[in-house]
Amino acid sequence: EADIYQTPRYLVIGTGKKITLECSQTMGHDKMYWYQQDPGMELHLIHYSYGVNSTEKGDLSSESTVSRIRTEHFPLTLESARPSHTSQYLCASTRDTTYEQYFGPGTRLTVT
Amino acid sequence: EDKVVQSPLSLVVHEGDTVTLNCSYEVTNFRSLLWYKQEKKAPTFLFMLTSSGIEKKSGRLSSILDKKELFSILNITATQTGDSAVYLCAVGASGSARQLTFGSGTQLTVLP
Predict the structure, then answer these.
(1) Which of residues 55-84 of B touch A (CB under 8 A)?
(2) CB-CB under 8 Å, A100 with B99
(3) pLDDT by residue (tens digit) across A4-23?
(4) 3-state secondary structure string across A15-76
């Protein structure tokens, strides 16, 4: 079983608040990803990382930012949350030699 | 732009039925096609296919890829209520980030 963790699992916050969604993996994977998924919709890649100090924006434009200071940690930050950010955020990671991504349990974010 | 289309969008069957889920793709520099099962939280990995015509099998689930016609099918025989989930198809193209492009999924409901 994959060891990838996300906190918090559920978050309800007010508009304008700054939030950080945490993602950690203990598998030593270099590549990590953040996806956004609205109910009944496909996963959209919003950020990814090749490794430490390497981050890129994904296909879906997002107002969030990410950092990768340590291999195991890939947090996502929203400086000023808005209702349009309400969604599920999934973190994933993979080894260099495969396309199989392991997913965390997700954070369901609601911005009121 | 890479594209993955799944059909049907939803399917309701009774226990014991056999179902076939479809995934077609248009991807530049195809490398792998993956199937995931998502039950209200994180997607869990089912299969990864890279070669055409070779069936992958796990219990009652099986999948095959046709790289000439650019599609894959996922078969589930003798369905059970525990098979109820969203089944996601994803395609990986060449590139050091090993990004996946996801389809919108098929919602399968198995009634007792």
Answers:
(1) none
(2) no
(3) 999 999 999 999 999 999 99
(4) CCCCEEEEEEECCCCCEEEEEEECCCCCCEEEEEEEECCEEEECCCCCCCEECCCECCECCE
